[in-house]
Amino acid sequence: DAKTTQPPSMDCAEGRAANLPCNHSTISGNEYVYWYRQIHSQGPQYIIHGLKNNETNEMASLIITEDRKSSTLILPHATLRDTAVYYCIVRADNAGNMLTFGGGTRLMVKP
Amino acid sequence: GAVVSQHPSRVICKSGTSVKIECRSLDFQATTMFWYRQFPKQSLMLMATSNEGSKATYEQGVEKDKFLINHASLTLSTLTVTSAHPEDSSFYICSARDPGRAKPEQYFGPGTRLTVT
User: Which of A90-104, B24-38, B42-56 has the lowest mean pLDDT?
Assistant: First the structure.
């Protein structure tokens, strides 16, 4: 699986958009970009994934650059409950379903 | 969404004893489950892949005789930490994918915090 690079931490004001970047410059053509988050002392939670097109669901939006070497997860209106570690994972969809977690970004949403 | 549970949520045991952690898929059947370990302020590390009806596959550096995995049914995988030592104290998390859903996401259990004294 391609390696990802994320900033170790970010702050965001409550109610504002949180934009979390991820670099995956060695991504292969068949690899998807997945985002999970882990709230303190809980198991990770799936957020969103995409291949090349931008994606949106009830939790977030995923913007993938045209060359697919980087992406941004957008939480449109961050709340205090969005404080968590966010993991960007690149994986081919047939890669046995297991996930390889990097360091992630610790997002702190502040009132 | 699909639900994965773990039991117990917390356990404290004495050094040298064994501890069993259960991982259950509550509303789907999972032929494969994954076990992760997470030390404080670190990321999740995959320990092993649990396969229903066959032997587990362990990641490099994980002792299969110490971390016994049994996947006896399509909804239950167990991880037994044998002869536990303080360095085994960690947060253990399991996950599974619901093969009946089109989405490829993994569903994670809430985790089990093991403290070995």
Answer: A90-104
